[in-house]
Amino acid sequence: TRAVLTTRDGRCSGYGTGPAGNPTSAGPDAAMAAMSTAAGAAARQAEVSLDGVEAVMVAMAGVRTLLDPADLARTLGFTGPLGQLRTTGDVAATYFSGTVEPAGCVVVAGTGSCAGQVRGGVVVRSVGGSGWLLGDGGSGFAVGHAVVRAVVAQLEGTGPATALTALLLDDLGIAHDGALTADGRPTALGALVPTLYRGRPVALARYAPLAFAALGDPVADGIVAGAQDALAALITAVRADAWVGPLVMGGGTVSGGLLAPGVARTLALRLALEGADVRLVRDGAVGAAALALTAETSRLDDAGLDRLRAGVEALRTA
Predict the structure, then answer these.
(1) With contact defined as beta carbons under 8 Å apart, do 42 and 3 qualify?
(2) What is the 3-state secondary structure (H, E, C) of 177-191?
(3) Which of 22, 62, 43, 17 is nearest to 205 (CA)?
(4) Strands 113-119 and 122-128
(5) If 115 and its partner were Cys, which of 238, 239, 265, 291 is the partner (CB 3.0–4.6 Å)?
(6) What residues contact residue 295 under an 8 Å CB cut-off, 6+ apart?
(7) Which residues pair with 280 in a beta bridge?
(8) What is the distance between the alpha carbons of residues 247 and 244, in angstroms, rounded to a whole number?
(9) Interior/surface letters 262-279, b for 16+ CB within 10 angstroms, e for the rest
(10) CA-wise closest residue to 223 among 235, 232, 214, 234
């Protein structure tokens, strides 16, 4: 969860982060706590008090249906009129992190995945976003889930050997010395299974980077290829009907692997991206700030968006 504090003229003065807080997967209380942590950190960096903030834009998946504006205001310490506390989805924030154009397409692949068409500055069509149980192809969860299943399959003897096994067990501090229990079960597997089940299912997304770290391993390559094909399906769906405008793509799974330099792309992904004006973005907080400023003043131009992007990057680095 990230927060950025800006002045009315688009100068970024504070940037803060908090834990993961999607209200759908983590619950409203966790989302509130995460936003409070991130906003508080941004305010401390800017050396201001949140009760002096004039307007708030909260961009988060599920925010409109799961979080009450009055509760949001109390959590954030916002004392202004509730009409000055606005909400939107993470898809819109990602889109306006990459462009000021009022029409185009956006694909987000982070822990989950979704896509949208934008027209007149608003999202008019959504694809995906069904969550880890029903969809989220090409997401961090999908990749991480495939990683742990591949490791379990090797340890069980039902799947091929893979470099992912050593990476995952080392990450979790589980020995992989080939020892067996009295009933012939690998002791590493006996330790791995309860460890993974103790976390929330969506937390498997944290293991997605292992697939990219193991590229060159046939199993890891297959997992990444499958995720790229799923991403291609999202792109194809939102680019249907000869939709014009840029294609903005963001989320940790996009920037962290699926479209990273040097990562080979599947035929499906190459075809889906053919002719697209792709804009890769790193931080949806840029778009949230852009939307906040647009609501308070007027539509940003390219220079204004560049200024916001540079400001967020500088504060994040600091």
Answers:
(1) yes
(2) CCCECCCCCEHHHHH
(3) 22
(4) antiparallel
(5) 238
(6) 55, 57, 86
(7) 249
(8) 9
(9) eeebbebbeebbeebeeb
(10) 214
- Residue in the structure block whose two tokens are 């053919």: 274
Phi, psi for residue 232 in degrees, rounded to 5: -60, -40
Cβ burial, residue 239 (10 Å; 0-12/13-18/19+): buried
pLDDT tens, N- to C-terminus, the chain (318 residues): 899 999 888 889 999 999 877 777 677 888 889 999 999 999 999 998 888 888 999 998 877 767 788 888 888 888 888 889 998 888 999 999 999 999 999 999 988 899 999 998 889 999 998 888 888 899 999 999 999 999 999 999 999 999 999 999 999 999 988 888 888 889 999 999 999 999 888 889 999 999 999 999 999 999 999 999 999 999 999 988 767 899 999 988 998 889 988 899 999 999 999 999 999 998 889 999 999 988 877 678 888 899 999 999 998 888
